[in-house]
Amino acid sequence: MRILVTGSTGYLGEALVRTLRAANHDVRGIDILPSAHTDRVGSVSDRAFVMAAMAGMDAVIHSATLHKPHVATHTKQDFIDTNVTDTLTLLECAAECGANRFIFTSTTSAFGAALSPEDGMPAAWITEEVRPIPKNIYGTTKTAAEDLCALFHRKHGLSCLVLRTARFFPEEDDNKDVRAVYDDTNAKINEFLFRRVDLEDVVSAHLCALDKAPALGFGRYIISATSPFTREDLADLRRDAANTVRRYVGFDACFDKFGWSMFPSIDRVYVNERARSALGWRPRFDFHRVLEQADRGEPIGSGLARLIGKKGYHPVAFEDGPYPVE
């Protein structure tokens, strides 16, 4: 398959290009920054550049975006230009050039305020049926771009699948209170219970989406590590996460070894059932697996994530955290 990947110099983009080429696909990577995995350097805002890059492509994976870490450093107009207008340009060019599938990398941040129940309420059970309530321009523009994908499926017959990915970045947590209390590996292992996914599993979800897009037409899918919890656990997760986790996985021996602790409360659970069922996606990394890796003294997560490493979101470093918070 001939596949155009946007954002090919980025963390996910590089991982996609590497994996697709290893699977013998004909991949063309585009990005505003050069790299060994980017074939053409240019901006998606340049329609002529996009049309030339799109020529002959069967499919598009649109992973390029402004992220949550850019909210404090970029304007709202920047987000609209990059996340909405540039997505529209890609969709128009894909439809015009005859590409038959379009995979859009979105985010669970689109759910926004729906992820944080009021005090005293059970944890939120987050499925694709939950209505997004974006909290910032990032979530607002990603949901708008998702709706553009739905429009192009209805109006132009372009198969468009939206993957709402949980957090998978390797940087430290953006919350300074979390950084102050939890070792970085400890925090990330905890998150695999309810809100994190490994880079390799994000990539495999995109490959599954490429395969299934013509049959599915349009759909939104949550891409997160498989959680052990059920709806019956939601109230207990909010009150006492540690004892709720112990019902499913024994973690104390490993945590004691490293001086780690479980989060006292978990406020949401991402449910990936639809992605596993509809896409045939089989994520490999969950809380149990990364716990075993840590217990053996290994780095947690996939070799692919370690190969790509940290790329950061800005060309400069910040003193108070991996990036400024709005």
Automatic annotation (TrEMBL):
UniProt xrefs under Gene3D superfamilies: NAD(P)-binding Rossmann-like Domain
InterPro entries named in the record: Epimerase_deHydtase, Lipid_A_modif_metabolic_enz, NAD(P)-bd_dom_sf
SUPFAM superfamilies cross-referenced by the UniProt entry: NAD(P)-binding Rossmann-fold domains (SSF51735)
NAD-dependent epimerase/dehydratase domain ranges (all copies): 3-212
Designated name of the protein: Nucleoside-diphosphate-sugar epimerase
Organism: Eilatimonas milleporae
